[in-house]
Amino acid sequence: SGLYQGVSGLFGEDNVRALQKFFSRLTERFVNGVDILMDTFWRIWTDLLDVLGIDASNLTHYFSPAAIANSPTRALLLIGAILLAYWFLSLFLGFFFYLLHMLFGRFFWIARVALFTLSCVYILQKYEGDPEHAVLPLCFVVAVYFMTGPVGFYWRRNSNSSLEEKMDHLDSQIRLLNIRLSRVIENLDRGSDQ
């Protein structure tokens, strides 16, 4: 392409190929590292399910409607496992993003963007030949990205102010807006009189 030729002409084709090879190896190692981490989490999760009495090697059996209809206790165990998974995931994500916020402070957004980018690189590299299977993980990554933003729970839970303090703050904001609006109206009246 034109971009590749332009960069090759500027830095040399051998340097561009070496850089491309470096980033290719780097993304492969990153994907392998994340795969090992996910495999470790999966093993811990299957051990927890085994403790609950659920055969983790045959999870699809537990999701079939016939199996749930035949055994109501199995349905309760499945609901318990799903709630437990949700609790562990929220606990892990809450702790992880709290730790990142403590480490990066005001520059937490840089860590969020970097994690979002690395997650997208991982998913796109992992499902390179099958883009249909990459849609759901990408949607999950985007949801986590927005949940950890200013609209997320983490940002709202740090406000320790009472309702009265919030009302006073809103009242002062309304007063400031009224003052600014009256100044704009006065300036418009002066401009129309001249």
Description:
With 194 residues, the protein is mainly α. The mean pLDDT is 80. It starts with a helix and ends with a helix. Helix content is 84%, strand content 0%. The chain has helices spanning 2-11, 13-52, 59-63, 65-70, 72-104, 108-126, 135-147, 153-157, 163-193. It has nine helices and no strands. It is flat and about 80 Å long.
Secondary-structure blueprint of this entry?
Layout: H1 2-11, H2 13-52, H3 59-63, H4 65-70, H5 72-104, H6 108-126, H7 135-147, H8 153-157, H9 163-193
Helix pairs in contact: 1-2, 2-6, 5-6, 6-7
Short description:
The protein has helices at 2-11, 13-52, 59-63, 65-70, 72-104, 108-126, 135-147, 153-157, 163-193. It has 194 residues and is mainly alpha-helical.
Helicity level, as a percent range?
over 70%
Instruction: Give the DSSP E fraction (strand runs of 2 or more residues).
Output: under 5%
Oligomer: single chain
Radius of gyration: 27 Å
Count of strand segments:
0
Report the biggest beta sheet as strand number plus sense, adding barrel if it closes: none
Mean pLDDT comes to: 80
Helices and strands, in N-to-C order? HHHHHHHHH
Low-confidence stretches: none
Shape verdict: flat
List keywords for this structure.
194 residues; mainly alpha; 9 helices; 84% helix; flat
